[in-house]
Amino acid sequence: MLTIHTPLPIISIVLLLTICPVMSYEQTPIKAEQTITYKIMTADAALLGDNRTEVTSCVRLMNKAANRIRRSYSKAAIKRADMARAIKILASIDSVFSEEGFLFYTSKDIHFDFLTLAFRDRYYDADRYSWANTYRFPYFQSLHHPYCRLIDCDLYCYIYIGIAEMLSLPLTELQLPQHNFIRWNFASGNHINWEAIEGTYHPEDNTLSCYGHLQDMDEQSQKDFMRPWSKNQVWSYYYTLRGSKFDYDSSYLSPVKAKKDYEMALSLDSAKSQAMNNYVWLFIVHPEFDSAFNFERLMRYMDRAIDIEKDLNYYDTKASLYAMVKDFEHAVSTEEDGLKVQYDPEPARHTAEHHLQWFKNGIDIRKGNSLPK
Question: CATH assignment of 239-370?
Answer without folding.
Answer: 1.25.40.10
